[in-house]
Each structure stands twice: as structure tokens, then as C-alpha cells.
Amino acid sequence: MPTTGPDTAVPDTAVPGATAEDADVWMRAHRPRPSLRGQIRRVVGFAEHAGGAVHRRELPFGGVPIILSFGDQVRISSATGSGTYTSFVAGMHEIPVDTTHDGTLRCIQVDLDPLGAYRLLGGPMSELHDAVVPVDGLFGPAWRDLGERLAELPSWPERFELLERVLGQCVQDGPRADPEVSWAWRRLAGSHGAVPIGELAAEVGWSRRHFVARFRGQVGIAPKPAAQVLRFARAHQLLTAPGARSISDVAAAAGYADHSHLIREFRRLAGATPSQLIAAVAPPPVAGAGQLS
């Protein structure tokens, strides 16, 4: 789903690997209050109605999504296992994930910054590495049945208001990341994974071993694979942005050693070549797009 402005309805963009046809898709983006914006990247209300099952491949992106379903279920499969979920959180991934629903999906998606997820969840993020966990099994009482409670409210503003109350309480009560880890993550994310890990450890004044352990526990994965995910996300963004760019140009711009290196990383992180991902991106649907009520 695309990033949008506050409380705006937009047509969904095509997701690589989506196979549903004649689907009606609605979205409503919400800008969280200022106190939450350092923790949360995006909040989007989402509703999809298709004539049959919808299959998508979700790619690593350097964030932690929470899906708060209004009762609809999603089948999730990856190299680490499979299962059927209603509301769930997906930790930092460095592998692709395939999702399937039966044609109807109504939910709110909350994309968290990894350090925001650490603060909201209050536990070692490394336990969520490449994992999907039901919301009810992970969070405290405030999160229990939250998707159903959101669905019962009559309007999207009321749903977003309830969500913000829950998020605000979790942020207030949750642990703060080490300043050193926070600085290193921002530096790594701001460079799209281009800063050497040894340099980050030296600049925070920690041994490399201690730095890696603290980073993994609070971000979710070790610094080196985190850098690889960030670099991949940047390359994928460049490849699928409007305007033709060669794969070699994207490899150079994203910091890969060469064309072949980029292709190997795409096969590992996305389960597809760059050309296959580009081919999977279709024009966004227009018919049926509209305002969520």
C-alpha cells in the first residue's frame, strides 16, 4: 500500500505478485499525532473485495507491520513456516512472505519503525526475526480483540482515535532503545545500508560483538542483514519508480558491487529476479477505488 497524506482515500497500488482480478480496493490513510510519528511510519485503513482468492508476495522493507483485521483471515507462508491469522504482527524479515485471503479483507495496517516496534512491544525484537505472531498472543490486554473492537465502531475517525489511544499508552509505558542503537539505526537507514558495520560500532564506542547483540535485540536483526534489507528496499524502489532505469544503473545507485550482485540479493530477499518483480507491477486499479466510510 502506498504512503499517503492524512485521512485521504486513494486507489491501492498494485502489489508485486497480486493475482486477483476485478477487485474493489479502498484505502484511508491517517496521520498519527506528533508524539507517535517517530515510532509509526504509516497507518492505513484498508478494505478489499474480490471475486476470488487474492495472493500477494510481501517483500522485506525494513519495518514492522501490524495488521488489525476486522475478522477476516489471512494465510501466510514463508521459508520459516505457514499459518492462518486474523490480527498479527510481522517482525523484521529478510525473506519474502506470501499472503492469501479469500477475497475479502478489512483491516487497519500500522507500519512501525523497528525501534518504535521495540518500544510498543516491550520485548526482544530478535524473537520476531522472520516470524509472524498473532496480536493476541504477543501484546498486553489493551491489544486483545482490538481488530474486532475497531470493526464495531461506526466511522474511521473513531477507529483511528481508539487505535491512537492504545498506541499512545504503549509508547508511554514501553522501553526506550539504547541511544547508541537508535543513532546507529538512523545512520544505517539514512544511508540505505551503506555504512560499514565496524564503523558504526567504533563510532558508538562499543565492541563489535556487543554492538551486534544490542542492535539485534532492539531492531530485530543484526546490523549486516539489516543493511542488506535497506539496500534491497532502496533498489526495489528505484526499479519500480516511474521512468526507466537499467538494472546496472540501479545496482550502482543502491551500492551493489555490480549487476550480478544485485540479482543474487534479489533472488535471496525477494525470491525473484529484478526483471520478474518489474513485470509483476501492474498499473493501479481505478474502477471501484473510493472513499472508506
Protein model, in words:
The chain is α+β, with helices and mostly antiparallel strands and 293 residues long. It has two domains: 24-173, Jelly Rolls; 179-280, Orthogonal Bundle (Arc Repressor Mutant, subunit A), CATH 1.10.10. Helix content is 38%, strand content 20%. It contains ten helices and ten strands. It has helices at residues 114-121, 146-152, 156-173, 179-190, 197-204, 208-219, 223-240, 247-254, 259-270, 274-280; strands at residues 24-30, 40-49, 54-58, 64-69, 74-78, 81-85, 88-90, 97-101, 104-112, 132-134. A hairpin with a 2-residue loop joins strand 5 and strand 6. Helix 7 (223-240) packs antiparallel against helix 8 (247-254) and helix 7 (223-240) crosses helix 9 (259-270). The chain is globular.
- Poorly predicted tracts of residues: 1-21, 282-291
Biggest pleated sheet: 6 strands, antiparallel
Radius of gyration: 19 Å
CATH topology of the largest domain: Jelly Rolls
Q: How would you write the strand order of the largest sheet?
A: 1-2-9-4-7-10
What is the CA–CA distance across the termini? 18 Å
**Number of DSSP E strands:** 10
Categorize the overall geometry: globular
